[in-house]
Design a protein that fits this description.
The protein has 471 residues and is of the alpha+beta class. It contains 13 helices and 16 strands. Helix 1 runs antiparallel to helix 2. The radius of gyration is 30 Å and the shape is elongated.
């Protein structure tokens, strides 16, 4: 079967089979669990194989390379699970909770409800008792299809807690769009929404509290005791919360003898100790009405709280959010994927335009015009295509389906034309000055976008001081 003719039908059939199996799995779900699991598994295979075939046929990349993509993802997931297990064991933490709260159905319940979390670790660190938990939006037994779908997208959250005296309940939630209209922060707003949607709330009757300052523009405060909130939110605490960009996208809460912060994502060593350092800073700045704990909090070694690595320090100095390891790797990969191909194409074009690229004489053997109703090239497609041969280093090189992009005269069969060969992989043939300029512009566009992303990641530009809001 001709892949050019049958390929689209194979792709459509593959996706249709996957959709049919998903439908059957949904019908079996709840009544015949094994049949539903088989349908879902085979549907995943059908979707994956069809996508791999489409990618390999459409891009010319070998199919085994596309097979490597899911394998790499599986390896990363397994590595993350291994790392989580090893760091918890290395720190010698307890797998049970002796204080604090755990999430259940969106409510912060007693720490004895350990079956509601996927991972748990409690330990002493720099004078404070810490508790870390990883949990899912899907509670035991489930809450129906919408919650399960959200959990599949990414419903994993981490809860980092610091032991405190038992005080009235208090929740400090960052506001979405707090800087508007002076400055729009859509990425921070997205992180606020993602972090707070899965944050457990204290099991107490809360009421809105306002400080009467610009702090109310950035944060929403709810409490069970307005007098305690007024005492706790001292100028030092408000200054810390408004000045530290880390608090700007994370909800902080007090309840049941625990000060905690919630963040979307798995419980990692970095997330555990970064959260603990920030909570220790907050504890040191607050007035707890407890002389013993006030002394402990202010004397505790925060271990360089709020400092992080050199990259995080640069980003925070520029009023930008620190990046997790996953975000840093993802941004770096995307930047490289934009810069390297773009620069390669731009360099090939520049060498052709400046006459530094080697030139060869291409003998045209077959042509196809875009407007023609028939094709004589080796494959069908849109655009003006040329087949031909040229001599390079004593060898004859055959060219198939060269897309002729020049606005000059389109060659005919038997014509001999001068073309340049780009020195970098994939060594494109450039048939004229206009083509070289066009390819140069195409190459510079993604390269500049990638460089801008790299600069925003590693060397962010500080925000204009007049756009910062006073605490």
């Amino acid at each position: 079967m001709d892949p050019q003719l049958g390929g689209p039908w194979l792709i459509a059939a593959g996706y249709a089979v996957g959709a049919g199996l998903l439908f059957l799995g949904n019908r079996f779900d709840g009544r015949r669990p094994k049949a539903a699991a088989v349908c879902y598994s085979v549907a995943g295979v059908a979707f994956s194989e069809t996508s791999l075939y489409w990618l390999s046929a459409g891009t010319g990349v070998a199919q085994w390379l596309w097979f490597a993509v899911p394998l790499v993802i599986v390896a990363l997931v397994a590595w993350r699970g291994y790392r989580q297990t090893t760091w918890i064991k290395r720190l010698g933490g307890s797998g049970t909770a002796s204080f604090g709260v755990l999430p259940r159905h969106g409510i912060a319940v007693s720490h004895s409800e350990e079956d509601s979390v996927a991972a748990l670790v409690e330990l002493d660190h720099n004078g404070h008792r810490l508790l870390g938990a990883e949990y899912s939006l899907t509670p035991p037994g489930g809450l129906g299809e919408p919650v399960r779908t959200a959990d599949l997208i990414d419903g994993t959250y981490s809860l980092v807690q610091l032991r405190t005296p038992v005080v009235p309940s208090l929740v400090i939630t960052p506001n979405v769009g707090a800087f508007e209209p002076e400055r729009f922060t859509p990425f921070e707003d997205a992180r606020i929404t993602r972090n707070t949607i899965g944050a457990p709330k204290p099991d107490a009757l809360l009421q809105r509290f306002e400080t009467g300052t610009d702090f109310d523009r950035r944060f929403t405060v709810t409490t069970s005791d307005p007098e305690f909130a007024r005492t706790f939110l001292s100028p030092a605490v408000r200054d810390l919360l408004t000045r530290d960009v880390w608090f700007r996208v994370r909800e902080v809460a007090l309840h049941g003898g625990s000060l905690w912060v919630t963040e979307a994502g798995a419980l990692t060593e970095q997330r555990m100790f970064t959260g603990a350092r920030r909570l220790a800073l907050l504890a040191a700045a607050a007035d707890w009405r407890d002389e013993a704990f006030d002394a402990v909090a202010k004397a505790a070694d925060t271990g360089g709280a709020g400092q992080g690595g050199s990259l995080d320090r640069r980003r925070e100095a520029a009023d930008r959010q620190p990046l997790s390891m996953f975000s840093l790797v993802a941004r770096s990969v995307i930047a490289l994927a934009l810069v390297l191909p773009g620069l390669a194409l731009a360099v090939n074009s520049l060498t052709a335009l400046t006459g530094l690229a080697p030139e060869v004489r291409l003998t045209v053997t077959t042509t196809q015009r875009a407007e023609a109703g028939t094709a004589s090239c080796t494959s069908c497609g849109n655009g003006n295509l040329v087949d031909g041969t040229y001599e390079l280093s004593g060898e004859t090189v055959r060219v198939t389906d060269l897309r002729w992009m020049s606005f000059g005269t389109f060659p005919e069969r038997g014509d001999v034309v001068d073309v340049s060969i780009g020195p970098l992989w994939w060594h494109p043939l450039i048939e004229g000055t206009d083509t070289g300029v066009f390819l140069l512009l195409i190459g510079l566009a993604p390269a500049l976008v990638g460089l801008a992303l790299a600069k925003a990641t590693y060397l962010p530009r500080p925000r204009r001081p007049d756009l910062r809001l006073a605490g």
